[in-house]
Amino acid sequence: MPGHELGVNVQDAYGAGANAEQYASSFEGLHSDFTDVLDAAKDACADEPQLTGWSAYGEEQVDAIARVEHHGVALAENVQGGASDVANTDTQASERYAEVGVPPSLPVNFH
Fold first, then answer.
1. How far is it, in rounded angstroms, from Cα 111 to Cα 61?
2. Can you give the pTM of this predicted structure?
3. What does the alpha-carbon distance between residue 68 and residue 73 come to, in Å, rounded to a whole number?
C-alpha cells in the first residue's frame, strides 16, 4: 500500500450493509418455502413407485435452514456495525488530532 494507509469508505460500507439486509430479508420464511417445495415434490411422487422420507428429510433440515436465516441477518448487522465503528473511530481520531493543534499530513476520512 502506498504510504501505508488504511481506510474504509463508511458510506460504501453502510450501503453494503443495506444490500446485505435486503438480501437477508429474502431469507425470512425460508423454512416455509422449503416445506412447500418438499410437499410439491412429495405430491409429484405420489404415484408408483412411491418415495418416502420427505417429512423426515424436512425435519432434519429445520436447524440448517434456521441457521441460514440467522446468518443472513447477522451479516447485515455486522457490516452496518463495522461501518458505524469505523465512523466513530474516525471522529475520535479527528478530535484528538484537533486537540494537538498540528494538522495531519492526510485529511481524516469523514465519509
1. 43
2. 0.56
3. 9
